[in-house]
């Protein structure tokens, strides 16, 4: 099949015309949006695993026909959708759009999109996948009355072929082809005229190539950001000179386990600072960044500094040819990274354990033979050596550097290069930590303190955002007016002190509760909360949308104003997603919300019914049929033995001993207070539902 031609974002971005209200609110001219969003798509900080799912097909949903007279009309249409999506998601939501002429436009491209709706979709074989986590979105640019043209259908077929067969394996689409409305989603999308094509076997569902091409020349490591890693509690560096060996492990759980689930167990149950392994490999041969090349692991007692550990995700006998090729490729890469030939070994050779099972033990003992191995690129998963530190994605680091006024601003492209390292060092010097270019926990803590809690010359944004302070100063007549750019520099500090003097509070430049109260009194009712609250991670408008998306009642007014109702709503959301309910939307709340919204969204009602049973079954690796039978009970006991060292007899009897082990496990994983009484009642089920929603079971 001929390759698809994709028009880059810059083609339609030239036609962006942002609403005046948005430009005034953000203090930017229209050209800024054209320049910024005409660049390649920015990587998301959220989990992105398209190989597990596939493609959702959409339409515009307009009740009127879209009949473009020229390609310019199509480009303007895409640009208008960007302007509509921007307040909610900060970009256009679709991955690709295909116009009636058959032209394919890049939206989010190969990065994660946000057009498919939240939560999950149940598929055949007991699978349940995130709608945005595991699926590309392709929009056919049709209104309700429009029929797809032959050119549109032909291009959609080529595009799906490209996504399935022509990308590196960590970006390939899986084989599912579904309409947006699939899984009971409350929408008519993709409309009656496109619906017949949004299914397996339709004319836009491409056949596999007669002869599959070779894999990409280089394997790529899936970064921590791409699999949704939590920030480590601490990071300990290991000099390359100390590395001597390469040790193979297995997870001893179902191959359907996610890396995040393993990390949650290591951090919440074992109390470790992070996932224990340096890298992990799944049955398809995908490589995931754990602690990376340069950090001390927690995998093999006595060998955590000297050895790099790779964990195969699965049980004894599950390791595929692709998995073994990737493990061997990782070993060869390790030799290159450390400049010496590392010893090959396995966990049970270094300690008393059955890990990694008979199959991998025999394979490693035989020298890890494979037909050939692949180069591993330095791109997606540098393991902290490229400046990631495992705490914040590279794109997020670049945004943070820019937010503090770095010039010239970094390109937010998710790629660690000399400019990004220099920018991070500049930020580190500014926030008062060692300028080593690696964004670890110390840098994260210092950055949060600098942007949120304030200090001389830094400002304080925990009560009112910096941009809102600048607006308030201007509203009281300060001249010359401050730039409303959200950056706390000398002029903003002077302006806040001017306001404080007028309001009759100490002029320290820090906008705390006393300044807020005095300002509101001074403004005689004319003041608003504006975009108060903590907005360094997510704007107030997007916080309000997030609260409403989880079913908060009565719905918040989505006006971007942080008042008592919004604060209450944020606290409600924080309680639901399992973080401290302080009303401040910081990085912990953002991470918990994104994980929750991508998950099963179980109602925490204490009812161990078919839906909760099915989600539990997926977590413990058995067929998700919603029936709690003997095999499910045995799987639960194996799960608790593996992940909680419960020491249960696997007999399918979920009596008091099994329930007590479950209760202990839930307490460790979610910090829920439970009475360890061996009685499986509504309280235990609610704790289980919470753990499943948070991906912590």
UniProtKB/TrEMBL annotation:
Residues 233-432 form the N-acetylmuramoyl-L-alanine amidase domain. Pfam families: Amidase_2, PG_binding_1. Gene3D superfamilies: Peptidoglycan recognition protein-like, PGBD-like superfamily/PGBD. Residues 219-354 form the Peptidoglycan recognition protein family domain. InterPro entries: Amidase/PGRP_sf, Amidase_domain, Peptidoglycan-bd-like, PGBD-like_sf, PGBDSf, PGRP, PGRP_domain_met/bac. Belongs to the N-acetylmuramoyl-L-alanine amidase 2 family. This is Peptidoglycan-binding protein.
């Amino acid at each position: 099949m001929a390759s698809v031609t994709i028009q880059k974002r810059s083609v339609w971005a030239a036609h962006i015309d942002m609403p005046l209200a948005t430009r005034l609110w953000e203090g930017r001219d229209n050209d800024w949006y054209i320049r910024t969003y005409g660049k390649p798509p920015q990587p998301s900080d959220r989990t992105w695993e398209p190989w597990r799912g596939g493609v959702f097909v959409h339409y515009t949903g307009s009740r009127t026909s879209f009949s473009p007279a020229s390609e310019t009309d199509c480009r303007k249409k895409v640009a208008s959708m960007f302007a509509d999506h921007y307040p909610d998601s900060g970009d256009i939501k679709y991955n690709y759009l295909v116009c009636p002429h058959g032209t394919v436009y890049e939206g989010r491209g190969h990065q994660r999109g946000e057009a498919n709706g939240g939560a999950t979709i149940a598929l055949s074989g007991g699978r349940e996948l995130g709608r945005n986590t595991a699926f590309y979105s392709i929009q056919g640019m049709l209104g309700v009355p429009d029929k797809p043209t032959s050119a549109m259908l032909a291009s959609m077929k080529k595009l799906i072929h490209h996504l399935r067969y022509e990308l590196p394996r960590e970006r390939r689409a899986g084989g599912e082809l579904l309409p947006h409305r699939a899984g009971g989603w409350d929408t008519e999308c993709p409309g009656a005229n496109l619906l017949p094509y949004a299914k397996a076997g339709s004319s836009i569902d491409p056949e596999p190539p007669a002869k599959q091409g070779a894999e990409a020349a280089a394997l790529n490591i899936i970064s921590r950001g791409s699999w949704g890693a939590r920030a480590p509690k601490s990071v300990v560096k290991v000099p390359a000179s100390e590395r001597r060996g390469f040790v193979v492990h297995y997870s001893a759980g179902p191959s359907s386990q996610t890396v995040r689930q393993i990390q949650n167990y290591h951090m919440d149950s074992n109390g470790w600072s992070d996932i224990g392994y340096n890298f992990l490999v799944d049955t398809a041969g995908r490589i995931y960044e754990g602690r990376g090349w340069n950090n001390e692991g927690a995998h093999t007692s006595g060998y955590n500094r000297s050895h790099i550990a790779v964990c195969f995700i699965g049980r004894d006998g599950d390791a595929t040819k692709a998995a073994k090729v990737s493990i061997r490729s990782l070993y060869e890469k390790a030799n290159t990274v450390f400049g010496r030939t590392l010893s090959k070994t396995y966990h049970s050779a270094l300690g008393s354990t059955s890990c990694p099972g008979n199959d991998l033990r025999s394979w490693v003992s035989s020298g890890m033979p494979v037909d050939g191995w692949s180069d591993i690129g330095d791109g997606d998963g540098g393991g902290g050596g490229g400046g990631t530190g495992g705490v914040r994605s590279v794109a997020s680091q670049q945004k943070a550097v820019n937010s503090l006024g770095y010039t010239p601003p970094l390109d937010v492209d998710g790629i660690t290069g000399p400019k990004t390292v220099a920018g991070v060092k500049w930020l580190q010097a500014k926030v008062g930590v060692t300028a080593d270019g690696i964004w670890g926990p110390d840098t994260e803590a210092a950055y949060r303190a600098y942007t949120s809690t304030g200090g001389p010359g830094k400002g304080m944004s925990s009560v009112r955002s910096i941009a809102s302070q600048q607006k308030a100063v201007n509203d009281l007549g300060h001249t010359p007016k401050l730039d409303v750019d959200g950056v706390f520099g000398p002029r903003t500090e002077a302006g806040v002190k001017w306001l404080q003097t007028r309001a009759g509070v100490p002029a320290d430049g820090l906008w705390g509760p006393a300044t807020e109260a005095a300002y509101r009194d001074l403004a005689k009712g004319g003041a608003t909360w504006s975009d108060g609250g903590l907005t360094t991670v997510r704007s107030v408008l997007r916080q309000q949308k997030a609260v409403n998306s989880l079913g908060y009642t009565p719905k918040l007014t989505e006006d971007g104003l942080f008042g008592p109702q919004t604060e209450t709503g944020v606290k409600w959301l924080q309680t639901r997603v399992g973080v401290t309910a302080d009303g401040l939307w910081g990085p912990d709340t953002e991470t918990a919300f994104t994980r929750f919204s991508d998950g099963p969204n179980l109602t925490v009602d204490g009812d161990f019914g078919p839906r909760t049973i099915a989600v539990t079954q997926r977590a413990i690796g058995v067929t998700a049929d919603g029936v709690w039978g003997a095999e499910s009970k045995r799987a639960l006991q194996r799960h608790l033995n593996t992940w909680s060292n419960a020491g249960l007899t696997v007999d399918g009897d979920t009596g008091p001993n099994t329930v007590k082990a479950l209760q202990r496990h839930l307490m460790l994983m979610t910090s829920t207070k439970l009475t360890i009484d061996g009685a499986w009642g509504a309280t235990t089920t609610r704790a289980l539902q919470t753990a499943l929603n948070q991906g912590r079971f």
